[in-house]
Write a structure and sequence with these properties.
CATH class: Alpha Beta
Distance between the termini: 28 Å
Order of helices and strands: EHEHHHEHHEHHEHE
Largest sheet: 6 strands, parallel
Shape: globular
Number of strands: 6
Structural class: alpha/beta
Number of helices: 9
Radius of gyration: 17 Å
Strand content: 5-15%
CATH topology: Rossmann fold
Length: 217
């Protein structure tokens, strides 16, 4: 990884991870730390989401397409003049969108979704740096349950475990941008300034295309 892709000089930084990993919280702290603009998902704006968790089979395609278009619209905003002067920290990677589709759509629905995705996402540029947050499925499940968001109460443990596994497989093969893989099990970057600055220091020291940060007990 070259010096131009360090945290402070990368134009487009992405924080990713499955539900409960802390990607939005870390994106906000990093954005404030480096004075970057934030590009955050807004799941609460998806009108199909609560119905999806009640009846996945019926509302999966609508939910997925809404998220796809939302993510595309936000990503395309990077080309606007007001985004050109400052770096951007996002809490999503567009290329992860099919992960959710594979978990929820039927074969026929996924075929239709994939045609839309391939047509619209082909021209989207890769970010300069990806920070991928990992945690054990049981930890992610506990975090999701603890935060108590209404629509998330209907999400099954099996779905959250499958999602975490899908993320691991995806990032095992992802090489479109430099990736810092962070084990967040014992890292409280939300409430602990020491933990946050330790993570920032580790990211700033990154020089390879893929590196790992695992803080022990």
């Amino acid at each position: 990884m070259s010096a131009r892709n360090t945290l402070r000089t990368a134009r487009h930084v992405v924080v990713e991870g499955p539900m409960g990993a802390g990607k939005s919280s870390l994106a906000r702290r990093l954005g404030e730390h480096i004075d970057a603009q934030l590009l955050l998902e807004q799941p609460e704006l998806n009108p199909f989401l609560s119905r999806f968790y009640q009846d996945q089979q019926r509302f999966a395609l609508q939910t997925q397409l809404f998220f796809l278009f939302q993510r595309l619209d936000k990503t395309r905003a990077l080309a606007q003049p007001d985004f050109c002067s400052r770096s951007v920290v996002a809490d999503y990677l567009l290329e992860k969108d099919p992960l959710f589709a594979l978990l929820t759509l039927s074969e026929e629905e996924y075929g239709l979704y994939r045609k839309v995705y391939d047509h619209l996402a082909a021209a989207v540029a890769a970010p300069d740096l990806v920070i991928y947050l990992q945690a054990k499925p049981e930890t992610l499940i506990a975090r999701v349950r603890k935060r108590g968001i209404d629509y998330e109460r209907r999400i099954g443990d099996a779905y959250l475990s499958a999602l975490a596994e899908s993320y691991m497989h995806f990032f095992h093969n992802y090489d479109a941008a430099p990736v810092m893989v962070v084990n967040s099990e014992n890292l409280n970057f939300v409430d602990s300034d020491d933990d946050f600055h330790l993570l920032v220091k580790r990211i700033e020291a990154m020089r390879g295309h893929r590196e790992y940060f695992n803080r022990g007990e």
